[in-house]
Specification:
single chain; about 230 residues; alpha/beta; Rossmann fold; Arc Repressor Mutant, subunit A; 2 domains; five-stranded parallel sheet; elongated; transcription regulation; DNA-binding
């Protein structure tokens, strides 16, 4: 799973970087290092890594801010390295877009296991869409070629944005999306408006595709995080 993957390590402690690097290279990874936040963002743009290991305590830019910057451009997996063990700190980091966290001091083997699991999960999430997607015994049908959506056989009229939201969910089934991730995927990385606008699009989409919008079977709310698609 790790062979040939590009991993960006962001940490200002040389010893930690060297340990992680040695383990990753042993697995066949191509490793890139950054001791400062600015260097990390520059490297991220240049190498387009498959995963980022990110320390939260950096000398110039906080790991939280780096995480926010990356999330505006990409959904690349991010594992936080943190000495902060308070639950509120961890939850805050996850809300900013990190996928997992490891507290210092840590076992390199545990970190490798976390990296492997996260990359495996990501590779399994995205699925190629067939021309016609049928859900819940033809309750909802999406014709990708015609850009046509039917509910119980009847064509329903979706806006362009609602259709993009639906396709995003279909491409990553069972993935929990934050509002920021949905906005980036649907409205574009340059969107800088009100982030709750995605809630309105979700509400309108539910009105059209759900049998009972108040008890959705397709787009479910993951409290404190965002939304997940559960149609089969």
């Amino acid at each position: 799973m790790l062979n040939t993957k590009k991993i960006l390590i962001v940490d200002d402690e040389d010893k930690i970087v060297e340990v992680i690097k040695s383990y990753l290279e042993r697995e066949g990874c191509e490793v890139f290092e950054a001791l400062r936040g600015k260097d990390a963002l520059d490297l991220f743009e240049k190498v387009n890594p498959d995963l980022v290991v990110l320390d939260l305590m950096l000398p110039d830019i906080t790991g939280e801010d780096i995480c926010k910057c990356i999330r505006k451009r990409s959904r690349v997996p991010i594992i936080m390295l943190t000495a902060k063990i308070e639950e509120t700190d961890v939850i805050s980091g996850l809300h900013m877009g990190a996928d997992d966290y490891v507290t210092k001091p840590f076992s390199p083997r545990e970190l490798m296991a976390r990296i492997s699991a996260l990359l495996r999960r990501v590779s399994e999430e995205a699925i190629p869409l067939s021309n016609v997607v049928s859900l819940n015994n033809d309750d909802l049908m999406i014709n990708i070629l015609k850009q046509e959506v039917r509910k119980k056989g009847e064509i329903i009229d979706l806006t362009i944005t609602e259709y993009k939201v639906l396709l995003t969910f279909l491409t990553y089934p069972q993935k929990t999306f934050t509002r920021e991730e949905l906005i980036s995927a649907v409205l574009g990385e340059d969107y800088d408006g009100y982030d709750r606008v995605i809630d309105t699009h979700i509400k309108n989409l539910r009105q059209k595709i759900e049998t009972n919008p108040k008890e959705p079977q397709y787009i479910v709310t993951v409290h404190g995080t965002g939304y997940r698609f559960e149609g089969e």
